[in-house]
Structures are given as C-alpha cells and as structure tokens.
Description:
Helix content is 0%, strand content 46%. It is mainly β. A hairpin with a 6-residue loop joins strand 6 (55-61) and strand 7. The chain has 2 domains: 4-74, Immunoglobulin-like; 89-146, no CATH class. It has a 5-stranded mixed sheet with strand order 1-7-6-3-4, with no helix packed on it. Strands 2-5 form a two-stranded antiparallel ribbon. It has a two-stranded parallel sheet with strand order 8-11. The protein has no helices and 11 strands.
Amino acid sequence: MPPVVVASTGARLEVINSDSLLHNVHASLRTTPLFNVAMPLQGQHYTKELPRTAGGIQVRCDLHPWMHAVIQTFDHPYFALTDALGSYRIADIPSGKYKLIFWHQRLPQRTVDLSLGPGEALERTMEWEAAEGSSPSDCSASERSVS
C-alpha cells in the first residue's frame, strides 16, 4: 500500500494480500475502529466502504509494524495527491473564496487563502523548512496549480 491515499468519503476500499505471509489489516478513523481483519492467504481480497465522515484513516498491519498508511478522505471533489515531482492539479473549481490546505503525514499542515475568479487558474508553491521535517528527504513539497 502506498503511504498516503486520497479518496472520497463513502468510496470502496479494496485490500489485497499480495504475498504469502499472514497480514492483519487494522484501520481506524481518529479513535473509532473501522475494521481489523486477518488476511492469511496470498491473493485474498477484503472490500470495505470508507466512512461518510471526512478525515485521516490510519491503516496498519498489526503483525508488521513497518507497514502503515493514511487514507485521507474528503466530502467534496476538490482534492489531489501530489505526483513524484510534488505537482498536482485540481480542476473545475467554481469561482469563490477557498482555503487550500497542504497536508503531509510528517510535516505541519499549511493553509493558504485563495480567491478564484471565473475561468481563472492559479499556481501556488509551498515549502517547509528542513527543521520542520523528521529527515532531509521529508522537507520539501510543492503544489503547482489550482484551477
């Protein structure tokens, strides 16, 4: 599983055990447990509808502590996950005033106020100082465009 996944609230999550080891997939939204399922067989599938409440779902394997991820869910269609270069695009946003939130699993959340006119495209960049991250590889992220 990738370390961060984004999805709409209520979306369907499919977890697949792709190796021959026993895994225990355990997920919670804040303090509420969502599921805790053993997956002993290679190729085994588990499907679950994500909650209708937006937020960060913590997913981990109880047997392998290095296996963990966050599923960030949203109750609107205006979200994106950055690509390998730190770029993303959010399209078809109606004109208006918004808060653009930059979130990283190991860095402080940042918020930028935006005003978007009809047909307007914006570009924003966000950077974090090295001291804010847990290691040098975690210290920079940028956003390329919002339209």
